[in-house]
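Re: weekly structure request thread

Next one in the queue (196 aa):
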Amino acid sequence: SRQLPQNTDNNPFNSSTSWLGSSLSTIGNIAHLRESITNGTALAVSDGSYDANSNKASAAYTLLDSTGQHGLECSMDVPGDASCQNAYRAEVAGILGALFLIQLANYIFDQSHGKVAVYCDGKSALEQVFEFSRDIGTAKSKQSDLIMAARKVIQNMEVSLDHHHVKGHQDDEILLELLPLPAQVNVHMDQKAKRH
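Done, posted below.
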């Protein structure tokens, strides 16, 4: 694997994307992440949060190996002026952040193959980023900047991506430790986004 250079064209962590990784941290041994991406068992999970009282949105996102014990994690304040902040924008920003982590891991590991499953509890945001035509539905959207950025990252992604809706707040009904891993991680990302 390689270390991040400061300024190169193919380095996904540059001045225009630094807000995506401003609180980047590692979990466990990220070398395990490479194996999970290669064998298609890695998962990326994101969630967004919006506080109407402060009119601020935040997001948290992670890229983990199949055990959920090793990977990368990050949170951010959602960019944009106050007039465009909302819960939907926070969800889209979280997906973009998760895609950034996948791109960053691919760069660090010099990896050009593999697969990652992307999970989010914002079904509409997932559909807008992954399923809609590049030009439809974004021209007048306050989130068009983030949606188009996410679509561009997907276009340039060297690994395969699957996307899945995960129901949020499942821990309200079932003990956290009994939930499937994507649901457990979604709960953690929800809490992290709210604390950011």
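The beta strands are 25-27, 42-51, 56-64, 71-77, 115-120, 160-165. The first helix runs from residue 31 to 39.
Next request, please.
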